[in-house]
């Protein structure tokens, strides 16, 4: 093995000679060339109630107000390879039926990308869900091709609607949804109701949004009926 010398772009001169004279494992080369994780530009704080919030450093170059920052949802999930991966949901277009799963570039993290996501989603009328690769941001582990596949699979599993689980529910299910929900589109409630094997008569609250549905009289009335009669006789 050639002796170590000055370093060029994370390779020493000795490693460069070894690379061209006696090539090492291709995956090692790919990892050094393809992944350039920056110093983390954000952190995720969890309060006593279990709610997570995003905290950015100056290097994140945040371009919006605190209101937009408070609307960015963050969480950490675990991959099939055991790494913890940071995820971010940017609700740019509440009325949109679509969410873009975005894999960012190789030299940035979620903190640096979140301003871009707001601008992008607002322009294309689409929400954005993104994640950090292993070894980036708050994500643990080291960046590699195998970890990358596990990272995006874990992100996809987080993003998918409860629709894949609802068919396994064995107890009676009451679905209540506001027709003007600006956060979770009304179509989601319909899809869950249609796929739930033991769904009772749903309640579609005409004109209700995401945060005011409990103010409608029929909300409490339908819940009482469900608990008193439909659950009791199941």
From TrEMBL:
Enzyme Commission identifier(s): 3.1.2.22
Gene3D superfamilies: alpha/beta hydrolase
GO biological process: regulation of postsynapse organization
Enzyme's top EC category: hydrolase
Keywords noted in UniProt: Cell membrane, Cell projection, Endosome, Hydrolase, Lipoprotein, Membrane, Palmitate, Postsynaptic cell membrane, Synapse
Membrane topology field: Lipid-anchor
A molecular function (GO) term: palmitoyl-(protein) hydrolase activity
Keyword Membrane recorded: yes
Catalyzed reaction equations: S-hexadecanoyl-L-cysteinyl-[protein] + H2O = L-cysteinyl-[protein] + hexadecanoate + H(+)
Keyword Glycoprotein tagged: no
InterPro entries: AB_hydrolase_fold (IPR029058)
A GO-annotated cellular component: endosome membrane
Protein's cellular compartments: Cell projection, Dendritic spine; Postsynaptic density membrane; Recycling endosome membrane
Family: Belongs to the AB hydrolase superfamily. ABHD17 family.
Protein name in UniProt: Alpha/beta hydrolase domain-containing protein 17C
Naturally occurring in which organism (per UniProt): Triplophysa rosa
């Amino acid at each position: 093995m050639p002796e170590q010398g000055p370093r060029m772009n994370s390779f020493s001169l000795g490693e460069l000679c070894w690379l061209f004279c006696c090539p090492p494992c291709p995956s090692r080369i790919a990892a050094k060339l393809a992944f350039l994780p920056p110093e983390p530009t954000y952190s995720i704080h969890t309060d006593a109630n279990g709610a997570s919030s995003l905290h950015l450093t100056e290097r994140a170059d945040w371009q919006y107000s605190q209101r937009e920052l408070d609307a960015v949802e963050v969480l950490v999930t675990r991959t099939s390879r055991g790494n913890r991966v940071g995820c971010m949901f940017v609700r740019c277009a509440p009325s949109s039926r679509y969410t873009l799963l975005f894999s960012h570039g190789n030299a940035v993290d979620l903190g640096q990308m979140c301003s871009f996501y707001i601008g992008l989603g607002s322009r294309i009328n689409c929400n954005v869900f993104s994640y950090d690769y292993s070894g980036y941001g708050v994500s643990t582990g080291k960046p590699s091709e195998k970890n990358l596949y596990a990272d995006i699979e874990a992100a996809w599993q987080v993003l998918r609607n409860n629709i894949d689980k609802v068919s396994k529910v064995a107890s009676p299910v009451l679905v209540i949804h506001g027709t003007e929900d600006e956060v979770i589109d009304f179509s989601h409630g319909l899809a869950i109701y249609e796929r739930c094997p033991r769904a009772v008569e749903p309640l579609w609250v005409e004109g209700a949004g995401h945060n005011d549905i409990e103010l409608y009289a029929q909300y409490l009335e339908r819940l009482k009926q469900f608990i008193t009669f439909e659950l009791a006789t199941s």
